[in-house]
Amino acid sequence: MDTHLIKTVNKLQDAFSTVGLQNPISDLPQIVVIGSQSSGKSSVLENIVGRDFLPRGTGIVTRRPLVLQLINRPATPKTNGTIKNENQDDIANDLTGGDNIDEWGEFLHLPGQKFYKFGEIREEIIRDTEAKTGKNLGLSPQPINLRIFSPNVLTLTMVDLPGMTKVPVGDQPKDIEKQIREMLLQYITKPNAIILSVTAATQDLANSDGLKLARQVDPEGSRTIGVLTKVDLMDQGTDVIDILAGRVVPLRLGYVPVVNRGQRDIESNKTITKALTAEKDFFERHSAYHSKAQYCGTPFLARKLNMILMHHIRNTLPEIKAKIQNALVKYQQELTQLGDPLGDSPANQANLVLNIITEFCNEFRTIIDGNSNDLSSFELSGGARISFVFHELYANGVKSVDPLEQIKDVSIRMMLYNSSGSSPALFVATTAFEVMVKQQIKRLEEPSIKCINMVYDELVRILGQLLSKQFFKRFPTLKDKFYHIVLAFFKKALNPTNKLVSDLVSMEASYINTGHPDFLNGHQAIAIVNEQLKNKNQPPAATTTPAITNGKQKPRSSPQQPDLQTSQPHTPTEDENGFFGSFFSSAKKTNTSSGMMDAPPQSLKAGGTLTDREFMEIEVIKMLIVSYYNIVKRTVIDMVPKAIMLNLVSHAKEKLQRELLTELYKSDVLDDLLEESEFSQQRRKECKKMVEALQKADEIVGSV
Ligand SMILES: Nc1nc2c(ncn2[C@@H]2O[C@H](COP(=O)(O)OP(=O)(O)OP(=O)(O)O)[C@@H](O)[C@H]2O)c(=O)[nH]1
């Protein structure tokens, strides 16, 4: 093989292996040898490879495909430090099978076994062929896979195939011709196969089986080279000049006449080197060829192949160049992101910390305000999540609190008794209403505090997002510090926020503004309830009369109170007219029966059937509670988010930067803060190495 081609490919392969990229030219065309039996295919292949390792001879010799992978590997440096010359052992290794530690063969079916003697490779091919096909000329499509490692070969694949034959002999099946054709087609149909169609010059070219088959898969002849063997065996006075001139069966890539070793040469162990010299002499001395001797013989065939391979490589170069360029851009970008290694200059360090703090805070504000560059279209982020907490979670949480859920009619009744003190009340007790509504307002503190915690969680989430930035990967200590400082800052802001929010709720509870324009006044409430009472006392219409709860209407009957719908309408007695009517009436009954006045029991409870007045009082109170509660709900839904924004979110937006600067922008901590992570240091080295290697690779590709 052309050493220039080998060197070029090696350079490209080196360029790629140093940068760890998949080598795009590893896929060089396969060279496939086809032709009639004994036309000299194996001989041609051997001459091209320059090694004597294939079984050759008369009759059918190649009976299984031989897939020969040539693998280029660098020569082992000599102990004296000089690199071995590529060709220095060329002759020594010939036929004799002399050992060369840099060249060996390996069979797929004998993994791990290295064959340094090429004669032994041939023996193994014969042994394994017979093992699979028997000794009696049988054929098999099962390939023998052989890899040859050498500094002197191109990494490419060559395939030696059984010769085409028509008449079965020995153990061969009747359709041997068809079977072989199919076997060959499998290999030559691949578009990257270069077909070496071998025909003995002693044979009629028009009947060449190899050419006919090649034309089937390559009608243009763009990848078929005609090889004419046994030119030395032609009758005196005949030659292949007409064929070479394209006057017989023209081929775009032309024909190359060669002279391989004859059977006698093989038997006398003539070396390839000697055979090549003899071939050269033959063409130079032959009267028909001597003027065109440079276009004849194995070296010219090898050059032709090299040219085709070079052409292929040139075609692949733009792709290689693009791959190198892309990788270069990628690594250069990463290198820029990693930044330069920091010098010890305190001014540099301080500047960097300042920049990181500024960038962090800007980004933090941007995320909260929703102006971030990487806005997601899949999920809510940053400020939008906080807004969701306020307007969905918190607002709905507050709206769902039912003030009457915890207020039973009996407790209202009890409260009414108690709030009127020792004198019977004249009308709806304001005190009872206020006491009850205040208790209910206090219940709004819990969802409000929960809302603060949810917003806090969102801030921590944003913090996590920001800490995943590249520069924090580079400085783990700085990242850690940021985390703790910012978290502590948020936590500190929680206290005034909690205080402000609970104060807001307390404010609501501290003064019940019955003069609020939206508040349902007592008269309206009484009118509504009176209407209900009227309906109640007119059965059966009363059965549909609802009581008002939390602004909604629901059936009034409940287990805690007598079912007013079923109790008979009654005229209130004198006793029952007071708030304590029921109680006194029952107490009186007790006293009358015992005939004496006992001390009141330890625990006194209001009981007995509700009077209409009590019913009215209870319903009015409930209605007022619901009305007032709705006003308070609206206020907290409006105010609590404002309080959280003021003391937590906006506070962070405004004051976080100062906090970070106070804590981090100090000369005595800079050294520790900016200690780079192992990862960054390592990665920078890797990237630098890659950039250098890629630049070199780019140069190499440019020079090919
Ligand atoms: N004199 C002479 N003999 C040749 C030439 N080429 C091949 N031979 C002889 O022809 C015979 C067949 O050569 P091989 O290389 O085994 O041919 P093949 O095409 O591989 O044979 P099969 O694999 O059996 O089809 C051998 O005895 C070779 O020595 C040549 O150019 N000149």
TrEMBL record:
SMART domains: DYNc, GED. Residues 25-318 form the Dynamin-type G domain. InterPro entries: Dynamin, Dynamin_GTPase, Dynamin_GTPase_CS, Dynamin_N, Dynamin_stalk, G_DYNAMIN_dom, GED, GED_dom. GO terms for cellular component: membrane; microtubule; peroxisome. Keywords: GTP-binding, Motor protein, Nucleotide-binding. GO terms for biological process: endocytosis; intracellular distribution of mitochondria; mitochondrial fission; peroxisome fission; vacuole organization. Pfam families: Dynamin_M (PF01031), Dynamin_N (PF00350), GED (PF02212). Gene3D superfamilies: Dynamin, middle domain, P-loop containing nucleotide triphosphate hydrolases. Residues 536-579 are annotated as: Disordered. Residues 548-571 have a biased composition (Polar residues). Residues 618-704 form the GED domain. One of its GO terms (molecular function) is GTP binding. Belongs to the TRAFAC class dynamin-like GTPase superfamily. Dynamin/Fzo/YdjA family. PANTHER family: DYNAMIN (PTHR11566), VACUOLAR PROTEIN SORTING-ASSOCIATED PROTEIN 1 (PTHR11566:SF220). This is Vacuolar protein sorting-associated protein 1.
